[in-house]
């Protein structure tokens, strides 16, 4: 009898753990890959087309795939954002993302080495790639992470008495070298993006109806609760001229009842609200954060 009771207790504990595991969701951050450029001279001939640069596209696709596989982001492609990144305030908010990634391939080289002997021949192809990344926080316009890394990839073929592999041009080495460089940076990008609490915005207040940005694709579900804050004062650091927003003041709690929208950019959620008065004509002074 005791064994049966212990088994039931163990199952109950496992069931409870399972529920907690399922409800422990991470709100996805919106990340825009603003641009990725090829700053090297590799493959830049007379009829070079920047938009169709193969090295640029490889780096962009590999970075997108690595970030998407983490399950922590909604990726938004926003090419040509260099001007907006330099702007402040509303110019940055129009991007519709929490963070912007700007990157470039700074180094790319390919070499082939061979070793010819009496009865054997060895051929080694090596590719080296260097990648630089900047991560910009949209709400502040500040670069919160900047780094670069190098990656290598190689393949070797050997023939003995004419028997063995004969290696031609290996196009996959470019992917492998760029991927190796980006792998060294992606974990830091993820950690930096997830360090700060998720933030959203109050879009509308009308006759007891409260609408916030974000929806299902970000992990917002009916029953999700958020704290509503009124923005703190913005001060300027006289040493470097950087504007700093002081911590906001909590004014109430929003609870999601339903969500609508076809894309991550257009998703909104309807909420109930408990708390202090809200200045409906100045909603830009408010933001929401996960509790």
Describe this structure in words.
This protein is α+β, with helices and mostly antiparallel strands and 291 residues long. It folds into two domains: 26-195, ABC-type transport auxiliary lipoprotein component (Rossmann fold); 199-290, Thrombin, subunit H (Beta Barrel), CATH 2.40.10. The protein is 24% helix and 42% strand. The chain is built from five helices and 15 strands. A seven-stranded antiparallel beta sheet has the order 7-15-10-13-14-9-8, with no helix packed on it. The protein has a six-stranded mixed beta sheet with strand order 2-1-3-4-5-6. It is elongated and about 85 Å long. Residues 1-24 and 84-92 have low confidence and may be disordered.
Q: How would you concisely characterize the structure shown here?
A:
The chain contains five helices and 15 strands. It is an alpha+beta fold and 291 residues long.
Shape: elongated
Largest sheet, spatial ordering of strands: 7-15-10-13-14-9-8
Per CATH, the superfamily of the largest domain is ABC-type transport auxiliary lipoprotein component
The number of distinct helices, counting runs of at least 4 residues, comes to 5
Strand count, sense and barrel status of the largest sheet are:
7 strands, antiparallel
Q: Which consecutive residue ranges, at least 5 long each, have pLDDT under 50?
A: 1-24, 84-92
Number of structurally distinct domains: 2
- CATH architectural label of the largest domain: 3-Layer(aba) Sandwich
CATH fold type of the largest domain: Rossmann fold
CATH class of the largest domain: Alpha Beta
């Amino acid at each position: 009898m005791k064994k049966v009771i212990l088994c039931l207790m163990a199952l109950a504990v496992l069931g409870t753990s399972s529920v907690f595991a399922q409800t422990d969701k991470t709100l996805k951050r919106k990340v825009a890959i603003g641009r990725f450029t090829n700053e090297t001279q590799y493959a830049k001939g007379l009829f070079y087309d920047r938009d169709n640069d193969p090295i640029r596209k490889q780096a962009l696709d590999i970075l997108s795939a690595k970030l998407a596989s983490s399950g922590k982001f909604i990726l938004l492609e926003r090419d040509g954002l260099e001007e907006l990144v330099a702007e402040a305030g509303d110019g940055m908010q129009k991007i519709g993302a929490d963070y912007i990634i700007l990157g470039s391939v700074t180094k790319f080289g390919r070499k082939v080495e061979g070793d010819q002997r009496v009865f054997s021949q060895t051929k080694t192809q090596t590719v080296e790639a260097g990648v630089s990344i900047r991560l910009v926080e949209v709400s502040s316009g500040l670069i919160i992470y900047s780094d670069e890394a190098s990656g290598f990839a190689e393949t070797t073929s050997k023939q003995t008495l004419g028997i063995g592999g004969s290696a031609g041009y290996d196009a996959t080495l470019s992917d492998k070298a760029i991927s190796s460089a980006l792998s060294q940076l992606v974990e830091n990008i993820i950690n930096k993006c997830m360090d700060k609490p998720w933030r959203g915005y109050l879009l509308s207040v009308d006759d007891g109806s409260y609408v916030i940005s974000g929806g299902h694709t970000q992990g917002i579900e009916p029953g999700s609760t958020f704290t509503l804050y009124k923005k703190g004062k913005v001060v300027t650091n006289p040493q470097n001229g950087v504007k700093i927003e002081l911590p906001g003041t909590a004014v109430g709690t929003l609870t999601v009842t339903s969500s609508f929208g076809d894309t991550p950019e257009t998703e909104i959620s309807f909420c109930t609200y408990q708390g202090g008065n809200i200045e409906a004509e100045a909603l830009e002074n408010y933001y929401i954060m996960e509790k």
